[in-house]
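Try it yourself: sequence plus adenosine-5'-triphosphate, in.
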Amino acid sequence: MSPVVLEATGLYRFYRAGEEETAALRGVTLRALAGEFIGISGPSGSGKSTLMACLAGLDEPDGGTVRIEGTRLSHRPEGERAALRSRLVGVMFQSGNLIEHLTVRRNIELAQRLAGRYDPAWQAELLAELRMEQRADSRPSRLSGGETARAALAVALATHPAVVLADEPTGELDAQTEREVLDLLRDQTEQGTVVIVASHSAAVAHAADRTVTMLDGEIR
Ligand SMILES: Nc1ncnc2c1ncn2[C@@H]1O[C@H](COP(=O)(O)OP(=O)(O)OP(=O)(O)O)[C@@H](O)[C@H]1O
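Structure, out:
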């Protein structure tokens, strides 16, 4: 039996604005075993992005815990969470994980250096596999939608993270690029990496080992 790599237990997240309170997560529990590819589906507003942000340590749940490889990511000062995140998690989010004033190559290098894992050979391999060698010295604003997604994926995979989290990574891609992104994510699972993708896309559900559905802040 594969070991548990990611364990989220009883996650709650509330958003408050004046008298209004939205329960974006209502007791979400999710476990991912080494090498699992999990899809997260669910209607707009069901809590997928909130869950992904909490799993990545980009957001703090109001209740519950997130552990990756046994290390608690939640309920720590931001600096500690950022350090753990750079080592354990690769993210590919709509908000973007690319730093605008750095080239694609420098973005990959920065992710590796922050995690203390500078690895030029892996950097070159990622650029080649993602057909980004010709665009490695471009800044993100000069890239097409498909190139931006591939660059974001290269950054997410730069540190060989234990968990890769992607929120709608293929939303704006053509079918071929979507397949390439999903194939590369699938390849990562062979070394035991956990891949979790939140998406409305049927291709993601097809690529995943299993898909969980969110509804009103709960996994159904
Ligand atoms: N920063 C915020 N402030 C207030 N409410 C928020 C905030 N972010 C999300 N919400 C609310 O929390 C709920 C869950 O939102 P979330 O973005 O996680 O859903 P989602 O399933 O990712 O939706 P989509 O598929 O449209 O991206 C929604 O009701 C949303 O309006």
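One thing you can check immediately is this: Residues 4-219 form a domain with the Rossmann fold fold (CATH 3.40.50.300).
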